[in-house]
# Entry
Amino acid sequence: MIRVVFNQKGGVGKSSIATNLAAIGASREVKTLLVDLDPQCNSTQYLLGEDVTVVEKTIRDLFTHRGKGGRASYDFITESPFENLDLIAADSSIGDLQSKLESKHKIHKLRDVLRELEEEYDVIIIDTPPAYNFFTLSALIAADRCLIPFDCDDFSRRALYTLLENLAETQEDHNDDLELDGIVVNQYQSRARLPNDIIQELIEEDLPVLESRISQSVKMRESHSVSTPLVYLAPSHKLTQELEALYDEIEAL
# Structure
């Protein structure tokens, strides 16, 4: 199963959610691959920390890869420090490949490679850049399911409608098998009125808001700073439990 974590707005927690979901799966002995398509390299940094400087192969090598023949031929895969969790690292310079890949009609390249890698992994999770571009579209074409992180403010709400239109267009034109896990509310403040009002309005509009809520917490920043996903850093913390509840909810869909 290939899942993409997608929102074309920045700062909504895509990398934090993608990395922690991947780590939760790995901690449950689910063989998991995390694919970092974001040139900001946040998921890569989150998993590897200082070791990111020694990564020789990245997502750039996936898009220029020519061979076939199983896991051994894919030397752009990096083992993370965590058992059952591998990574295709991001590359800050990948943007300069975009026009070349578009001109060569490589929009299905990511899908083709990941479909082969499904023989080696139970779950593949893709972290996407904060834009609707060639790489994001490649991820949506490759994926079976899509999870949308949502930060409860009015700007995020306006962007959400455009995002859903782009998603529907992708389903119609490129990937009619793509299903929406739903919208996960991130950096949730339960006592604040505005977030709860916005969530209720989205529900009344029949948008697929998930029951899971991911709270705002300094523990997430601590997790980033030590390059250790929460399930390993603080397994009993409330935020970890919320992320595990999200994992269970989307797996049950």
In short: The CA atoms of residues 152 and 161 lie 13 Å apart.
